[in-house]
User: Fold this.
Amino acid sequence: MKIEEIRLEELNPKKFIEGKIQEISSVIGNGLAISALSGGVDSSVVTILGHKALGNRLKTYFIDNGLMGENEPERVVLLFKELGVNVELVDAKEQFFDALKGITDPEEKREAITQTFYRHVLGRLVKDSGAKFLLQGTILTDVDETVAGIKRQHNVFEQLGIDPEQAFGYKIVEPLIQLRKPAVREVAKTLDLPEEIYKRMPFPGPALVARVIGEVTLEKIETVRKATKIVEEGLHDTEAFQYLAILHADKVTGIKEGKRDYGLQIEIRCWDSKDAITGSPTRLPHDTLYKLAERITTEVSGVVSVTYNITKKPPSTIEAV
Amino acid sequence: MKIEEIRLEELNPKKFIEGKIQEISSVIGNGLAISALSGGVDSSVVTILGHKALGNRLKTYFIDNGLMGENEPERVVLLFKELGVNVELVDAKEQFFDALKGITDPEEKREAITQTFYRHVLGRLVKDSGAKFLLQGTILTDVDETVAGIKRQHNVFEQLGIDPEQAFGYKIVEPLIQLRKPAVREVAKTLDLPEEIYKRMPFPGPALVARVIGEVTLEKIETVRKATKIVEEGLHDTEAFQYLAILHADKVTGIKEGKRDYGLQIEIRCWDSKDAITGSPTRLPHDTLYKLAERITTEVSGVVSVTYNITKKPPSTIEAV
Assistant:
């Protein structure tokens, strides 16, 4: 079934919000639904829409997969508390790291995240809560990329011929599926979500797993998390579409304390883009780049080399995995 | 034994040349010596000094290890023919690729190159020719890095406690061992070598092996050779100290013809440096970088992503392996 896009210029955010609140109410009826909040703009908007439609009949969870940015889970829970939405923090770190053990292929890594998230963690939460529905922030770009065979986005099922009710035991409701990112941001703004949310940089479904080449371990996630924090601090003021750090599996020769050190390499990407469909590397000043490299090689243990990606999308993709 | 450096500012190139010609004559006596020319400024200067000292009693070989830049062997042989020096081209491609099979560790790769070059290929040439001496273009920076334990340079033996006569069956004469690169260039100029030689960019002893992360295969060398050619064409006018392309073993997700393509990544490095001891990435214009990335992803089969290294040396090294 072809999904009809609502373009930014034809979007009436107020009407869209009213319509979606009604739609959610009528689909869920008197039942319970759950929302898995990641703190990204998509899941944040869906959570607020669900909260407005269902009140306490929406259970909102933040699944801590151990793969998020530094202090991300606690920050998001606090932020929504201030918005009047109670979010339960679910510690699922062990389950995710267990599922990722020994996997190096990017699509298999994404699949491990998807199965752990939807089948094991959310499946149990839905069952325990008695909910029959999951509200989910899938947007049109997720569908496009999955259908085109570029990347399997972890929140796309129907278009792949997967029936979530059969596969995981619950139905999925996707209020944002006709929108792309700029339209979602507009809706978020109209919902009075804070700038921290509606301007929030896209963050991939598989989280930091998308930023580790090769097998994912706790140690590697720690390394890429530290590098990510430095990149985010250093590039925050650029207002680029998205910026990120990638940890390579390849090791390169470097020098630490005058001796050979066969060490790690971090790749920085910073994108100019409107919609993530195409993108160009941001023309960052050389001093900004060199300062990032210096901070990363000084502050992140084991890193001896930092690169900046200079390829457009296509042929690159935004994330490396 | 501490080697006494002759600094650029205290070098008298004419006197240096006269002295070295006499020294080579007296060391070799009436015997034969051989020179293994790579086309780099160091081995070119040594070949000319040897030629001036010994005339036909110097045999000069270009060992084609299959790991050089495009058409490099033929170009160097022709150039020296024009200078009146007869160079014999030795095809040793198979021996080098056989020796590299299955090796991924950088130091082991360097060692495989060293052993194949000095023991197997040169060892046989020396034996067949009846020579007892190898003239070699070792410079002080090679010694420093090897002794410091940063990188084992493939032409450094004595300082590692290796007796080449015992190990390979010939003595090594190193006329340039007190000089660093800028001084060698000055000597080359005074010897009337063409600009193509005395301005020639440094090229690593292990050749393109230094630019392939992980196992080296014929196919990977082809890939990095093509990328190298594009980088050299694109950055020739910058007059940077050194610029190079590195092929990673890691694969990254990309898009080709609208489909997912799990492809190769090339890293570009371009160095500002005086002596290779320290270095900074050159502040290349963004357009230059983007054009390189576009050419490489278009013209080099399998490449979907290109990065630019933004780390200083130290903690990086000039080459990746």
DSSP finds eleven helices and nine strands in chain A.
